[in-house]
Batch of 3 targets.
Target 1
Amino acid sequence: MLCLYFLANYLDQILIAKNLFFLKMNHLDPKFIVKSFEKVFNRTLPKRKHLFIVLGLLGDFDSFEYVQSITRYLEKLNRYDIDLFIVGIGNKLSKERFCKYTKLPDKYLKVISNSDLHDSLNVDRGLKFSSFPILNLILMCMGFGSPGTISEVLRGYIGDIKGHKIFTNRDNLSELSLINLNPELFNFINKSNSQRPFELATLRLINMLEVLSNWDVYMMNGEHLTQRSATFLIDSNNNLLYSYYSKGLLGFAENMSNPLEFLERLK
């Protein structure tokens, strides 16, 4: 236990130093962000509001959960006249499976094979304590060098009165995984429209089963197992309205109870 304490303290010191570095580096020119996404999508973007999202590997837990939040918001994005562009690390096969699973229209997603875009946008690479990526990922799952992860895991089990209900009675969870669970069971715990206990944990378990059963599809490049994500909202005049850089596992949004809350400010 003492060794774990000193290891956690050592990793946290590294993280603090790294965050101070990124605070100095993350002041990017919005025009550079737009040009970077234009290059990936191979098109010139019209003068409109753009929501740019950079994901790590498509098999990352954050990639699944973030996109599942976004798919529920697509109508509002159209209503707000915001064009959506998502880039993740993957290939044609992982993109097809990812879009089918998350129900994200594939027109919004481009896949790249490496983290060059992430590096150019100063997106955090995640914990690099060991030369073994899987060990770094396991340490992040335990909260080492991954701020907020443990509290997020707990939130999935205890529920969140500030979060939205995830499953409706019409959902068929058996379509997503081998879990044959009736969503109505969550109503026995809480019938409100807020996020109920074990609801988010169940979604994360289903997502994890999807990844583990298709590991070679989603995790095609183990070098990027810990790669984090970033979000940028830019208006038609290339002004940066909002940005957020993920630092830890299960920390893809500034407000995890409502990941797209920043869009409400545009009303």
Note: The chain has one domain: 2-147+224-266.
Target 2
Amino acid sequence: MCLLVLAVDSHPEFSLVVAENRDEFYNRPTRPAGFWEEDPDLLAGLDLERGGTWFGVSRRGRWAAVTNYRDFHHRRYSRLSRGALVSRFLSDGESIDDVRQMLEQDDGHYAGLNFLAGDGCRTLYFSNTGGDCRYLEPGVYGLSNHWLDTGWPKVEGAKSDFKAWLDSGSTAVEPLFELLADRRQATDKLLPDTGVGLEWERLLSSRFIQSPDYGTRASTLFLVDRQGSATFLERSFDTAGDTTETRRFSFELPRFRAADDTKQP
């Protein structure tokens, strides 16, 4: 997954809104989003190559996402799947504090990553590449393949369009899919240098990526209203960048814990 925008308690109708694109090589086998047979409360796609997932939610009110940290000047190699962190958090029942402690104590099992997770009360951001590790305040955030809110053009543009949607008070989801579908590339002077070469920096600078071998495989939305009703939508794309199907799931989340039980440390 290479682009995510997140609104925490920043919309009149929704306590949480997540909109994200998953970018990947087309030949990497993937199972589309659905409830997992091995854990009927877990809703996510599945990476069939290494297991785990890039973004998922659970009926228990949890959600999590992971992105790669792109720096080919200083590559980090891993023994463990970064996507397994998402499914682990959603399935194992560990507290969000336990997950934070585990990530902070990791001794290099994972390649460079960003991890976002929420339990209905708090939202955690973690990077193992020197970025901030913190619980997020209410607000609007953007993430790609660098640290949270790094000012890459795709992140800044997506956040701007996202904020306009939030400020309008709209509950329509199609504008969120549209902001993720922007294929415009940044000008060369605004491109980061992550060690992949100019041609790839150009390709990866658009919110929606399309090339012969690599591109945006799916766009996903997750919205939770203030009564605890959750909506999860996943739109899949073929190698030409055309929509193949849109899946929609709706369910009720458990009542969130009282605010005095969730004070930040």
Note: The domain at 3-261 is CATH 3.60.60.10 (Penicillin V Acylase; Chain A).
Target 3
Amino acid sequence: MSQSNQRVKPRIWAIVPAAGAGTRFGSDLPKQYHRLAGEEVILRTLRLLTEVTRVSGIGVGIAGDDSAWASLLPRLPEGVWSYKGGQTRSETVLRGLSELIRQGREADWVLVHDSVRPCVQVQDINRLIDETGFGSPGGLLATPVSDTLKTVLPNREITQTVSRESLWRAQTPQFFPVDLLHEGLSKALAENLDCTDDAQALEYLGLSPRVVLGSSYNLKITRDSDLSLAEAILDLQEQLPCSE
């Protein structure tokens, strides 16, 4: 057997940034700790990630003053560990990557997933891994934009209609080489470049991650009203356990 056929694929780790306060949610309790169908949102998310059998472990970045995380410790799935997050999402992800590198995992790959996306389905994550195929620079789940888009002035007057032909909504997980994402986020933070998602950090390096078709059911819980919608999605997924 040739050496190339014997080559072992990189291991996959997950990083879940959960250090944000969730100010838009309208509650003193961070949104990831609110209950969804009887269980904390973040716990549902973590349980789902552990169902992806190729994930070797999950790092959760929590705020330094987080007082809710400790209550979850007895119920955490196996393989979940935590670390102190940063002031921004990018800083929190970067710290998780730095921890993986300290463990000698710089040649591995990472799935970065929002703690408040508990409705993503395992088959979609597996498709992301398979379609990306460990080909640098990686990829992310996304869906094509279907709404008509407008650019609007501060007074809410429309200035133009924007073509949606090549526009996609980025989701998570996003799947990248550990060392490459660490380089991109480090550059962005050093140069005060804003990253609204992890793929943007690789774009700053001149790279072009690919999108992999996800599902509109992969809701990001942002406001209190999203909890009811997420519960309805979970109920539907139990009845029809296939991705949209």
Note: The chain has one domain: 12-237.
